[in-house]
Design goal:
- The complex is a heterotetramer.
- By secondary structure, chain B is α/β, with parallel strands linked by helices.
- Helices cover about 50% and strands about 15% of the residues of chain B.
- Chain B folds into two domains: about 1-30 and about 215-245; about 35-205, Rossmann fold.
- Chain B is built from eight helices and five strands; from the N terminus they run ααβαβαβαβαβαα.
- In chain C, the strands form three sheets. In chain C, strands 6-5-4-7-8-9 form a six-stranded parallel sheet, with helices on both faces.
- In chain C, helix 9 packs across helix 10 (about 270-280), helix 10 runs antiparallel to helix 13 and helix 14 (about 345-360) runs antiparallel to helix 23 (about 570-590).
- Chain C has 23 helices and ten strands.
- Chain C has helices at about 40-45, 45-55, 60-80, 90-100, 105-120, 125-135, 140-170, 180-195, 210-230, 270-280, 285-300, 300-310, 310-330, 345-360, 375-385, 405-420, 435-445, 460-470, 470-475, 505-510, 530-540, 550-560, 570-590, and strands spanning about 5, 15, 370, 395-400, 425-430, 455, 495-500, 520-525, 545-550, 565.
- Chain C folds into three domains: about 5-140, no CATH class; about 180-325, no CATH class; about 370-475 and about 490-565, Rossmann fold, CATH 3.40.50.
- Chain D has seven helices and no strands.
- Helices cover about 80% and strands about 0% of the residues of chain D.
- Chain D is extended.
- Chain D has helices spanning about 1-20, 30-65, 70-90, 95-120, 120-130, 135-150, 160-195.
- The chains are: A mainly alpha, B alpha/beta, C alpha/beta, D mainly alpha.
- At the A-D interface, helix 1, helix 2, helix 3, helix 4 and helix 6 of A face helix 1, helix 2, helix 3, helix 4 and helix 6 of D.
Amino acid sequence: MNQSVDFIIGAISFILTIMVFSYLLGDNFFFRLASYLLVGVASGYTAALLIRKVIEPYLITPIIQGGYEQWLLVIFPLLMCLLLIAMFFPRFSRLGSLPLAFLAGIVAALTIVGVSFGTLVPQLGTLVESFNPDGLIVGANPNYLKIADAVIMVIGVVTSLFYFHFGLSRKKTNPEMRPKLIEAMAKIGQVFIGITLGALFAGVYSAALLALISRITMSRDFIMMLFGS
Amino acid sequence: MNELLIWIALGVVSLLLIIIKIGTGKDRDGNIRAIIAFEKLEHVISKLLENGKRLVIGLGSGYQNSLLSINGIIGLPAVKCTAKQSLLADEKPLILSGDGSLASMSQVALTETYRGLRAIEQYKQENSFFAGTTSMSYTASVMAESHAKENGGLFLVGHIRPEMLLPVDLVHNKASVSIVSADEPGTQAVIFPNCDSATIGEEMYGFVLRTESQPWLTASLKLQDLLRILIVIGLVAAIILKLFGII
Amino acid sequence: MSDDVLICPHCGEENLASATRCLHCGLPLEEAFAIDGLKDISSSLTGDFVKAEEESLPDLFRDLHEEADLQKKAAKIEALSSIESTTNKAEEDASEELEAEDTIPEWLKKIRQRAQVEDDSSGDLIKKVNARDEIPQPSEQSQVDNEFEDWLRQIRLNARRDSIQPLVEEPTIPGLDEETPSWLQKLREIKETENEPEPELKPQTEETLPEWVEEEQEHLASSDSSLSKGHPEHTQPLQLAPEVTQMPGESIGLGETGAEKIEIGKDQTKEGEALEKIIGQVGFPTGTEGKAFLEAFEQERPETADLLLLRSQRDRAKDLKDMVENEGKAGVLPKQQKAPRNKFFQLVLYLLVLSVIALPLFSGAIDTKINGTMQPVSLAFFDSVSQLTAQESVLIVIDYQPGSSAEMAAIFQPVLDHLTRQAVKKSFITTYPEGVWLTSQLIGQEESLTETGTTYLPGAKIGLMNLSLDTSAALSPGLVSSDLFGSQYDLDYDSIILLTDSFNGGKNWLELVGPFISADKSLLMVASTQEAAMFLPYFDSAQLDGLLAGLNESALYNNALGKSSSISINRSYQAGLLIMAACFVIGIITSIGVKERPESQEDVP
Amino acid sequence: MKKIVSIVIAISTGILVIAALIFRPQFNPLLSLILRWGITIGSMAALVGIAVLIKTHLQRIAVGKRGFFFSLIVLFGFSVSFLGGMLLGVANPAYQLWISSIQLPLEISFLGLLTLILTTTGFRLYRLKGWTPLSISFGISAVVFLIIAMGYLQGLGNPTLDRVIEFIQRLPIAGGRGILIGMALGALVVGIRVLIGVERPYGE
């Protein structure tokens, strides 16, 4: 029984892989079939999971099992959910702005807190800390490699930050350009950003390569299973 | 003590935004450089309307595909602007969102735009929906929807994953236009060499479209520039103090 | 002849009989009018007589008479105010006359402005006539002397102006502005203000326009200003024919330092709208108006053209002229051609890469031994896991999508073995809906380890914040706790191992969980190579205690565990990376010297 | 009137969350309650979004719009997955096998397809971007890091080469940190705009 199930799963997987890779020949019927199938299956699963794992425990269980106190603590989300359900009908889609406002307020606050506590302060603090004399000078002789690393790091960060500068120069001589100093630093910043994007490109390619290799391996195993060897 | 300083700094930054906005007043352009990807977007929107083609706007997938990403909000002005300009066109824009809250927000944006133009009957719910619940199924959905003949361009903005290069390649093969403004660095690295109208890093927040919120967007960019300069000055000063062992 | 010709007694030139004043020297011809038997009027035209005469005139004539004097004085003031006179005397006169000016009525100023406009457009003959009128009636010897001195001063000023003129006419070379004296700069500014085109008269006042017209105007103004502002963006020299992109900071407005050259491709395949955009950006009128504008611009004397235009504007004008000439040849909006798709080339390339990657896999499993030393980030990961003891618990978070499961399973395998060896208590949660069934794919091989199923943590960012506030409430939601104010709380686990393939997913954990858990708990990450480079700054700032990414690092981790690691797919993996590097190098070589091909996707269908 | 209410809700919620984080841990349970409401509403928004997706495909079938066959496929996939999950339960092994046997191969294949699409990057890069510091450093960096990712050089065991590779692998941190800080500033300002009620994604 187990072998036949494996065969069926292998066959489904092989056929779907071929349908997706048929895109190389051009956007065709089979490729779109596979795309729409993925959309249907994924949304069905997510809907079932959200109902089972979120709506039931967070909304329905307190109403059924909880007492008066639980109702009080659940009324607000229940009302908001009803307003969202009303959005399903185009005529009432404006009602949805109240729950969406609540969501936007939370996400905005978490973004502000996360960005300042989790990225800006630690990253800038590390840059300053890397110039700690204790770390740069080991015993009597300075650690030249660490010093070079710290200096390159600061130059890279400052110049790549100025690459994104938005304001144009106010001087009449170059009205449509950014200030000369910022322009010069932006040119250096481009090199550092190019290096980072190149490293990320290599990373994305090798991750995708592993996925391709796993698909080819799976197809090879299925073909061999098909021919019984 | 450190935490208190951070909270105070956040308060000051919020005040700075309001002060800068009051300072720039009605000045819509505010001496801000135009990001060429978004300049091109305005050109594409009008061009597509002339040619009777449709613009597909992808607002990106949510984090862990179940909730709102702050970067997805940036694309909503494009929804309003396209809807307004395509009022008399025969092809309305198609808005595909990768998370439920963004889909609802784009529907609210569409209804308000058409209601503002006294043309609420033009609003169709199937022009703006939740296209895919996982980021890969969102990619597949955008590719499938981009196949239609009446599509003339693709604009992706928000939380865009690296695999979204596939719909960009599909649109490229159909000799249509694609403009991408992604928040994931990996996506920027993959889209940058393959699409000439793509933003990198912070340029995504330079999305200023001629809408009523433009003065605030311009003030935001000025605030970002100011913060950038303050950060660099603070950094250099702190490094010098650190070297001399003062801090 | 002699009856209808009068000889001027002063300069001896002929004048018309009816002339009262000599055309050539401007002096009156009274003597010629002497009538026998009458007292010499001229000698009686003394001041008293003139005054009496003036009182008898009606008011209008008196004003006109005064106005003639004032006009003469105003002309003098303009001469004085245009040149910064070196002598003090001229300044005092100007101040006296300025006081007189305030008394002029409003309607008179208008007449004067109109007269001035007519003045400019009149020909030489009329100028001479006007000059004649300016010379006042000789009343007293002192008045004549004053006028004579004024006249001499006028000549001296003109001479000095001519001597200064060449200086001013020199083209302003950027960078020299600082040395030129301030008075010369003022002179230039005045010159510039004189040459500014007349402001267009608004057809209607602002208030009466309907709302939609205002919007349109606003839109046009903002689109003009942003277009003429130029787009210093993205990094490529501006190329007209295919697509308008240019370096950040280098304006499209042909700034001097800009590397952009507007090349009009001879074999111009692009339709006219890129052309329209450029012309629109440069801010000049297009089509026939453009030609008229250019001819008017060329006819102006080159010296003054140099004076007034910066060098970039001059280049811009020259380029625009080329564009306008080319416009005819290229055809305004060539029909949208389907860009020639190099489909076949792409297909061959795809099949080549596919076969290079697949070949090692079909030629039998060859295990290749991986050796080398781990990176510092992987070493730190190894040390952190080694320090975990049997009593401690680890929270393993599945934060990747099914598409990356092949890579994540391969990388995480040695870590799972290490955790099993440390006999650490493991709990699995996932922030992705698919994570619930992905865990069985991940740890399927070690069936015995599935103590607790995988818990789904919904809500993305909000869920993470909830987790760091109260793990049990976040992971086992049931009844809502009623006490709204509580005490300090901390994560129930000693270490978190996050498996992620998205930078923003990992960043959420580092921003919303990292800062809010106590320092003795470690946050480790197994990252897909997609975004591993972006997590290095977080390891550098000690927000991450360890980072394991990449197939090789995972193999070296296995080596560190004392197991012999070999990856059967490694040869195929290396072949795929090598052929990609080769494609890049070939692409770079073949792109050298090739003009930027119009990107087909630029042609908006 | 309704416009003011949604603005007030957004601003007050944001300020409440920030205040609760400032006065940690006293407000922890209250903040946990607000976050729990947010998770519920967010999930309901996703469910309503999915319902609208299915409704859209139903309308395409009803109208007989071109390509309605694919809408049938979506409905088939949705109904099998949704009903299976609701009836058998999401943790049921057979149900999970059905889902993983379809979703896993499709998603991995899409990612594998990306590998082949990326191979033309080298030929397009300089035709599109021209020769600028950014594109030149991008090209060189991509080639170098592709070769380093092979792991072949690290396997040679040459200490000097190892130190050079280690130095090269640290170079992306500089540019990465610049991008990080830049994007953090942008996200911070967008968050502040939403918090002070100027940016209203939830509707004017």
